[in-house]
Structure to design on (191 residues):
């Protein structure tokens, strides 16, 4: 795994990966081969290999459960998802996703897609928790500064005595911005 520097208090570490095709993942082609062997044994070698219906049930239940669990383990653990469904990338040019490991008590690990700017090569970005992180080749990922929202005139629709209480409460609430507004800004970034 190649670690990528990220200058953020929310992210402890980040590694770059590239996704492998679905048929080559551990729950893809190996189980196609195992199911073919099972069906071959069931229809042609039943008397030699199984000899009883109970063995067929146990074998098929084992195959079904191991197939299902090999897929579900990638949904339960993001670290295993990165190891099973992705290969290690050597550089940002080869990568197409980033495994984000947050700080302690900072939430769950995630595997987010890496965005590449086709207009100007060497600029990369990813969106984590509705915040866009941008970098050039050789520099760490930094959060893209977002413009402040214009203040809304609450006093125009509320009684004058209550306006001071509402403004003090809403000043402390975090405002979630849509990550889609920052994705288009990547094209116009200059360092």
């Amino acid at each position: 795994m190649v670690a990528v520097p990220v200058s953020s208090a929310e992210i402890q570490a980040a590694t770059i990966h590239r996704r492998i095709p679905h048929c080559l993942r551990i729950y893809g082609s190996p189980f196609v081969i195992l199911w073919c062997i099972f069906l071959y044994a069931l229809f042609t070698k039943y008397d030699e290999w199984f000899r009883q219906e109970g063995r067929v049930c146990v074998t098929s239940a084992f195959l079904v459960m191991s197939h299902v669990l090999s897929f579900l383990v990638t949904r339960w653990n993001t670290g295993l998802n990165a190891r099973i469904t992705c290969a290690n990338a050597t550089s940002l040019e080869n990568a197409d996703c980033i495994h984000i490991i947050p700080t302690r008590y900072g939430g769950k690990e995630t595997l987010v897609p890496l965005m590449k700017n086709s207009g100007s090569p060497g600029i990369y970005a990813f969106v984590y928790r509705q915040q866009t992180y941008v970098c050039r080749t050789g520099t760490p990922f930094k959060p893209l500064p977002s413009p402040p929202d214009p203040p809304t005139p609450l006093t125009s629709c509320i009684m004058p005595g209550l306006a001071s209480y509402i403004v003090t409460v809403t000043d402390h609430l975090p405002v979630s911005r849509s990550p889609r507004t920052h994705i288009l800004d990547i094209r116009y970034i200059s360092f």
User: Anything to note?
Assistant: The first strand starts at residue 2 and ends at 3. The chain has a mean pLDDT of 79. The CA atoms of residues 66 and 133 lie 38 Å apart. The chain is about 35% helix and 20% strand.
